[in-house]
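User: Can you help me understand a structure? I only have the sequence.
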Amino acid sequence: MLQHHRAVSTKTRNASSTLIANKPALKALTCGVRYTAVRWSLGDLSNKDSIKQERFTMKTRTLWSLVIACTCGATLCLADPVPDKPITVRVASYNVEFGRSTTPEQIGEMFESYNLDIIGFNEAPDGDWTARVGKVLGMEHSYVGKISSANHKDKYKSILSRTPLEGFQEHKLTGRGWNPASVVRATTKIDGVSFAFYSLHICKSNANDGHAHSLATKVLPEEATERVIVVGDYNNNIGDAAIKTIEEAGLRATWNDLKINVAKEFTYNAQNPKKNLGVIDHILYNVDSGGRATGGGIIELEKPLSDHKPVWAEITVPRKIKELQALR
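Assistant: Let's start by predicting it. Here is the structure, written out as tokens:
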């Protein structure tokens, strides 16, 4: 056993001696081992880095996909939050009898609780009278016409609005009875949608000989805005020939939607009810707008501020008029 061990030891020493004697071979072998080890190590690192990079790329792509999807969704929501939501407009009309019995501030206070978008006045004083009502109500936009009814003092037609007004016009109306009569017109955008608003003061007449006929056949046919509201002192009752002429031009009275029997009510004379002429102050809108009055009525005041009573209405219209018309 001892001899065998020595023999093995001798062979080992001999092999070691051979390698030591052959230093170039030993160096080459050592370098080869180191190179291979390094190459394997770099390969492992390269593979690991590649896997990590691929995973990072996939996560990044997934994250960006989510970001883009969320952004697009948010953009769509912001651009058109409720595309079919109807628009509600709150309007009023008041013949103030040239402000003889009140101040514009008192009228503003009277209207405060109605949260109105737009008001049409008739027999209104000139100057800043309408704007003063607006100051009380926080309604900064107004327009006052230049034609005073029957050429009397301070019987102008005006418009007061919460939203900016443009497209100002005043149309002179001719016909039987006192003259001149007129209607003022302006457009405004409410909830991003355009409305044409008219405020008038006309005389009582028949179907074809008065201011109502002039309005229905000359003024309204020229209106290009899709949503139209016409308010004022018509001096005619619902059912009269003059009102029917206007209705035939495509307008509808809010009283019809509200189921108010105006035959039993009156808006003139508020200060002398025994001499009342029934309901002669009206709010009408164009049928083609698809609108409908969802609220409103005659405002009854304990102490009248004019010989007329104010009237108001809440009108709701759809956003998509053309689609509605196509279904008819």
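Now, to help you interpret it: The chain has two domains: 1-81, 87-326. The two ends are 117 Å apart (CA to CA). Let me know which part you'd like to focus on.
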